[in-house]
Every structure is written in structure tokens, then in C-alpha cells.
Specification:
By secondary structure, the protein is an all-alpha fold. The chain contains 17 helices and 2 strands. Strands 1-2 form a two-stranded antiparallel ribbon. Helix 4 runs antiparallel to helix 13, helix 6 packs antiparallel against helix 7 and helix 14 runs antiparallel to helix 15. 43% of the residues are buried.
Length: 447
């Protein structure tokens, strides 16, 4: 009897080999990433809905009390106590930005952003999708009370956007999902730059010195081969505290640490196989317990280092961010008291600037930039039609998470912030509806 294919040894009884192997290819790292984002988008909708209902119900007082509850550390005369809202927006969202930094690092090393010719199209799309919405907003709000919110409609929420494409199923070719992901990564870079440069307070030099010390410590650890991620918590805490003291938003510490994370594997797949083969040889005859532990430790090191720290951390943290931190952020920030929004005077122009920037400016900017880039020689996937690019532009107008984050930085609590939040919800909802309608009407199913 012929020996079975090595890949079939783990094939469950009754499973059909072609279907099994097709499923394994489907759940590649990119597909797993997109699947998590799609499911996270549904949870974000639920969290935002709960926040809206709660903030406008008879229990709205408890909503405000919860997020203003003090939480922190007190030792003697020293204390660091902040509202729960601070720990969500400035603490937990640092982990969100860390995962963003890891994704930027990975994409620039081996993804769509690693090759300039492939990166040209999503780069152009992201720039167009940031500049046109900001321009529409600025044209409507120049000289008005809401002018500081120009950065709000520039953002794309990848979780919601991928969720819409997922609902469209086989109508959307994989190339459009990859383009959207690359566009969103560049969009995140743009949002990070905007936050760091335009939405930070007065810079305190001594805080930047602490940041430099933290980055230096992280790079030193990497240079001497320190691999356990827990060792980088101390440098990360230094960067976070330094940014907070410097007047720069502390969540950017996550991005800086993510960009400093090693993106190359130590052993790789071949090294893992070789090390495992070496240390498993004769292991059943190893009588010395210390020698057995050494063999097992060597195998464990090879297993852990078969992939890069950046990929390993992203794999571990991404579900926590998608299903925990982002919904919690939505719950804490999407609770708009309808009576608090002001749709008269400057408030109306703020509302229109955000809604039109997201629902109209994003699609126009992304599609026009893609057309110009393609005409200039940028590589466009063969399966990405003009209608497909238009669909990517429309769902790019869903700006929920990052838009809410920038709104918190642009406006203090009050009518302008409530108006901005309401506009983000309306503009993003319009983009979701337009994306689904456009997708079902213009994209053919390949299933």
C-alpha cells in the first residue's frame, strides 16, 4: 500500500482532502486578520447601540457616573488617579495603537507596503481619502467654532469596512480586501501623524527625554537579543509616561513600541524543524531529568521563535483588541446625548463637514486618487475593477473608531463634541448603507 501523503496525517476521518486543504489556505494569516476584523465590526455596532440607548435613557446619569469614576494608584502623598474614561482612551487604546504599529511594521516588511510598485495604489488611495475629506470639512468650517475638527473625517475604521465587505461575500474579490487593508494601514499612519503634530498640547522637553530613554532601552534590549515581550513593558511604560508628560497623546507609545518590535524570525520554519528533529532524537532514552528539561526547553524556544515577535504579538493581542478594547472604547465614547448635540449655527456646519467628509469626501478622494495612480503606472490588481475601487472608496468612509478618538482630542466635553460624535455615527452609518447597496447592485457573485 502506498504511504499516505505527509499532509494527510492530520486529516480528520471522513474529511475530503481538497476541501480540507482549501480551508487551510483560506485561513492564512491575512484571512484570519480580516475575519477577526469582520466579527469585531458587528460587536462594535452592538457596543455603539448600547451606548446610544444608555446615554439617552432614564439611566443616562449612571452612564456618565461610570466613565467619570476615579481609578488609579495612591502611595503616601503621591497619587495618579484619573477617570475610568481616561484609562480606556489613554490606557487601553495604547494597546490598540501597539497592534496598529505591529501591523505597519509587518506590512512594510513583507506585506503590500514592502514593494513600492504594489504600495503605490493604496498609498495614493489613502492620501486622497485623507486630503479630500479634510478639504471639504475645512471649506465648511473655516473660521467657525468647529474648525479644530478637520482631522475627524480623515480616518477609516478597518473593522467596520471589512465587515461590510464580508457581508457582500463572494461578490468582493480578495484583491479588494487586501487593497482596503493596505489603505487602512496607511490611513492609520496618517492619523497617527495628525494626532502627534496637530492634536498634542504644548511640548515639554523633559518628557521627550524620558521618551528617548524608553526608546533607547527598547532598542538596546533588541540589540542584545532580549526576546521575551514582557521585558519590553518597562521601556513601553517609560515611553507612555514621557509622552503624557510632554503633552503628546500617550497612546502613540504603542505605535513607537510596535515599530521597534523585531519583525524577523530567529529560527523560522526550517530552523524549527531542524531543532525539533535534533532534540527529539533519542529523547525517549533520556534518563537524566535535567537533560530532558534542556531538550524540551530548546524545542520550546525553537517553537516560539519560528515566527517573529511582531507576528507572534499581533496574533495574541489582535483578538483582545478587536473583541475587548475596541468595543469598550465604543461603549465609552459613542454615548451621545441627543439633547446635547447642537445642529444650529456653527454646530450645523460641524455636523455637515463630518458627514459629507466621510460619506462623500472619502469615496471621491479614494476613487480619484486610484484613477490618477493607475493612469500614472501604479500596479492595479486585475480583479480590481473601477466599480470595485468605488466600493472600496465608499466603505473607506466608515470612520468610527479613529474618528471618535480624534474628536475627543479636538473638542472638550460639551455641545461641539456631542455634535461631532453624532455626525460620525450618521456619516459612518451612511457609508455602511451605501457600501452594502453599491456592493449588491454592482458586484457580481463569483460563488
Amino acid at each position: 500500500m502506498d504511504s499516505p501523503d505527509r499532509r494527510d496525517r492530520n486529516l480528520p476521518p471522513g474529511a475530503w482532502k481538497p476541501a480540507r486543504h482549501a480551508a487551510e489556505r483560506l485561513f492564512s494569516p491575512l484571512q484570519r486578520f480580516l475575519a477577526v476584523e469582520a466579527a469585531s465590526g458587528l460587536l462594535l455596532v452592538a457596543a455603539a447601540a448600547v451606548a446610544l440607548v444608555w446615554a439617552n435613557s432614564a439611566w443616562r446619569g449612571s452612564y456618565e457616573q461610570l466613565w467619570h469614576a476615579p481609578l488609579g494608584l495612591r502611595i503616601g502623598d503621591w497619587s495618579f488617579v484619573r477617570p475610568l474614561h481616561f484609562w480606556v482612551n489613554d490606557g487601553l487604546m495604547t494597546i490598540f495603537f501597539f497592534v496598529v504599529g505591529l501591523e505597519i511594521r509587518r506590512e512594510s516588511h513583507e506585506g503590500e507596503l514592502a514593494d513600492l510598485r504594489r504600495a503605490a495604489l493604496p498609498l495614493a488611495a489613502a492620501l486622497g481619502g485623507m486630503l479630500v475629506p479634510a478639504g471639504i470639512f475645512a471649506a465648511l468650517n473655516a473660521g467657525r467654532a468647529g474648525s479644530a475638527g478637520w482631522g475627524i473625517p480623515m480616518a477609516t475604521d478597518i473593522a467596520f469596512a471589512v465587515g461590510v465587505l464580508t457581508l457582500l461575500g463572494s461578490r468582493v474579490p480578495p484583491s479588494l480586501r487586501v487593497l482596503l487593508l493596505a489603505l487602512a494601514v496607511i490611513d492609520d499612519i496618517g492619523a497617527i501623524v495628525v494626532i502627534a503634530v496637530f492634536y498634542s498640547g504644548g511640548i515639554e522637553v523633559w518628557g521627550l527625554l524620558v521618551v528617548a530613554a524608553g526608546i533607547g532601552a527598547a532598542l538596546l534590549f533588541r540589540a542584545i537579543g532580549v526576546r521575551p515581550p514582557v521585558a519590553y513593558l518597562a521601556p513601553g511604560a517609560m515611553i507612555w509616561a514621557g509622552l503624557l508628560a510632554a503633552g503628546v497623546h500617550p497612546t502613540l507609545a504603542g505605535v513607537l513600541l510596535g515599530l521597534a518590535t523585531p519583525v524577523r524570525s530567529w529560527f523560522g520554519a526550517a530552523g524549527f524543524a531542524a531543532a525539533t528533529h535534533e532534540h527529539l532524537g533519542g529523547i525517549e532514552e533520556t534518563a537524566d531529568r535535567d537533560a530532558l528539561r534542556d531538550r524540551l526547553a530548546a524545542i520550546e524556544t525553537a517553537r516560539r521563535e519560528a515566527v517573529s515577535p511582531a507576528e507572534r504579538l499581533q496574533h495574541v493581542l489582535h483578538p483582545w483588541v478587536a473583541f475587548g478594547i475596541m468595543p469598550l472604547f465604543a461603549l465609552a465614547n459613542a454615548g451621545v446625548a441627543m439633547g446635547g448635540a447642537d445642529l444650529a449655527g456653527d454646530g450645523l456646519f460641524l455636523f455637515l463637514g463630518i458627514v459629507l467628509g466621510l460619506a462623500l469626501g472619502k469615496p471621491l478622494g479614494i476613487f480619484a486618487a486610484c484613477a490618477l495612480a493607475s493612469a500614472s503606472g501604479a500596479v492595479r490588481p486585475s480583479t480590481a475593477s473601477h466599480r470595485g475601487l468605488a466600493l472600496v472608496g465608499i466603505v473607506g468612509g466608515i470612520g468610527f473608531t479613529m474618528s471618535l478618538f480624534i474628536a475627543q482630542l479636538a473638542f472638550p466635553p460639551g455641545p461641539l463634541l456631542d455634535t461631532a460624535k453624532l455626525a460620525i455615527l450618521v456619516g459612518s452609518a451612511a457609508a455602511i448603507a451605501a457600501g452594502l447597496i453599491t456592493g449588491f447592485c454592482t458586484q457580481r457573485s463569483t460563488g
